[in-house]
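Worked example 3. Consider a protein that binds nicotinamide-adenine-dinucleotide.
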Amino acid sequence: MAETKLFIDGEWVEAASGETFPTYAPSTGEKIADVAKAGREDAVRAIEAARRAFDDGPWPRLSGAERAEKLRKVAEILNGRVQEISEIEARDGGGTIKKAMFADVPGAVSSFNFFADCAQNMPEVVERGESPFPPAKSIVRYEPYGVCSGIVPWNFPFIMASWKIAPAIAAGNTCVLKPASFTSLSAIEMVKACEEAGIPKGVVNLVTGPGGSAGEELAQHPAVDKVAFTGSTEVGRRIMQLASGTVKKVTLELGGKSANIVLDDADLDLAAAGVLFGTFFHNGQVCESGTRALVSRRIYDEFVGMLVERAGKIVIGDPMDMATDLGPLVAPSQVDTVERYVKLGLDEGAKLLCGGSKPTDLAQGLDPNAYYLPTIFEADNSMKIAQEEIFGPVLCVIPFDSDDEAVKIANDSIYGLGGGVWSKDLDRAHAVAARMRTGTVWVNDYHMITPNQPFGGYKQSGVGRELGDIGFNEYRQVKHVWANTATDRSGYLHFSALSANI
Ligand code: NAD
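Given these inputs, the predicted complex is written out as structure tokens:
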């Protein structure tokens, strides 16, 4: 049985308490490792190591190009281990091996390469053009914040870890990462790659353990300058409160209840595939899942029939098998949550069109309590199942009569993370997209996130952006330096604002 450690100040160490916690393969319920259980004391040790590495170590003083070289090395190491890391990711989190190999590991490799490019190519010092008071000149310096903590959820543990570590260190910060307790294992592989690439000690630290203790310390400790959190809106609110004590920079990537709008002129074949992919990919355990399909009443019956028929073709089974489309949810407790919402939907009067139960025909050895069938409800947008994030394979289909009404329903949500519009008329689709109050809209597509474009939420889906040059700048402070070489200040008004006699 594997036993894992924390990574603090360049050393693999046990938790100060010596405690561990088990991690399971949700597909079978089998225990796969004992994970070091970091408490507050360990989080503080990691933060202090990151602080020293920032204040006195070489990393922030390297050029962008030098840091870029190290990040590219990390990418290269990870790229050489796609199969191995994908197996760890799929076994620990229950996502399919297909998803890990096509999305998670290559996505993390691209993140390291993209942020290496940012470090190399995005200038750290920018002259700001003609001064209104020559010869005085302004420059803006883009500087790292210092110590950044990254707290990530269990749904995409590997790629989320890369979205925290890569931009933070590319910009010259040091960091402490905390994975979710369900899924600690793949982040360990990422940190090993950072170590192997020769990133100096203290620059990347890892604490595995519960949010309530280690996580809280990462959000509130005075030596942390920035907190980057991905997870539920509820915990995001808590993070904001904790970080407010020392007025830290905070970025939050939170929950969602995104609308996938199918207009009456959509390519129905493509849109049906897109709506199913948008909802059921990774069992709906995706923050931007399009869990509300808004469908034009003109095509409603035909389209919903297509959804139900095709949902039945999704292959459920062993996540380690390349032929499997959907594995288990992350844990039986997540299935319990889904069951609660399905019951609530029925109580609210939603019409169950398919699914609504655990599968009964799983292969032997798979844990039936960790699986749930793709479920489709015809619902009203005011129902709880259409308003609250379920984080499971549950789609609400909601009819509309006009583009205006579709936009109104889409925006009738506390969230604003993702969304889709399906139409053959691009102008019409863009007009709808422009009116959606959400951080990302895909037109005739879904779930396409690339490291070079910003990702984040409106409303209670978050604060700030990850990815892209915009996401990179969330890890850089802006300093304005005004330098004046004039010796005669008589033409300047600002000194005179105090006195002409000084
Ligand atoms: P969660 O909020 O329960 O936990 C996220 C992380 O926060 C975990 O590492 C957890 O240990 C830690 N944590 C929990 N309580 C804490 C506390 N009091 N202080 C500090 N840290 C604490 O979320 P989850 O269940 O792991 O993930 C699912 C949620 O994440 C969903 O709401 C989903 O929408 C969201 N999510 C958002 C995005 C995005 O980019 N917007 C991406 C993925 C997941």
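Take a moment to read the result before moving on. The chain has a mean pLDDT of 97. Residues 97-121 form the longest helix (25 residues).
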